[in-house]
Amino acid sequence: MTVVYGLLMNSDFKATIKRRHLIFRHWQGDADLWQSYWLIGVFGGWAFWTIILNLVDFKILPDLAAVIILIGYSIYAAVGIWRSAFNVKCIGWAYITRAIIVASAIFFIFELIQII
Q1: 5 pLDDT more than 70
Q2: 37-41, 80-84, 97-101, 110-114: segment of lowest average pLDDT
Q3: Cα separation of 78 and 76, whole Å?
Q4: Residues 26-39: what's their mean pLDDT?
């Protein structure tokens, strides 16, 4: 307990957080907003969806497995972006980002309902 308490009180705590991998910082909300939104949400999402959908097209991955994987990634990206929203200098971006997450979730659910 002393070691953990000492780490939390250490002035290098933020530097320790920055050294963790982006995947973990994103999920915990410790990543910068631009990293969560652009790297994980936009570019990462585009790459991930492209790979999964190509695996389905080539009959390597069943449709149901693809849907489950894509839902999982979408939830991971949305939660991380939501948690990281206030890691920005201009607070307005945080509210804009959260509005985009809500609108995207509604659109995503609507699209899933049409598929099913």
Answers
A1: no
A2: 110-114
A3: 6
A4: 96
Strand segments, DSSP code E, in 1-116 are none
Q: What does the pLDDT average to over 5-26?
A: 68
Q: Please work out, in degrees rounded to the nearest 5, the angle formed at the alpha carbon of residue 97 by the alpha carbons of 114 and 89.
A: 170
- HSE-CB at 88 with a 13 A cutoff on CA atoms is 20
Amino acid sitting at position 54: N
Rounded to whole angstroms, the Cα distance separating 2 from 14 reads 19
What residues contact residue 101 under an 8 Å CB cut-off, 6+ apart? 78, 81, 82, 85
Helix axes 63-84, 45-57, angle to 10 degrees: 180
Q: What is the mean pLDDT of the chain?
A: 88
Does the pLDDT at position 116 exceed 70? no
Dig out the tokens for 38 from the structure: 């652009």
| Distance from C-alpha of 48 to C-alpha of 84, rounded to nearest angstrom | 20
Place of tokens 């659910």: 109
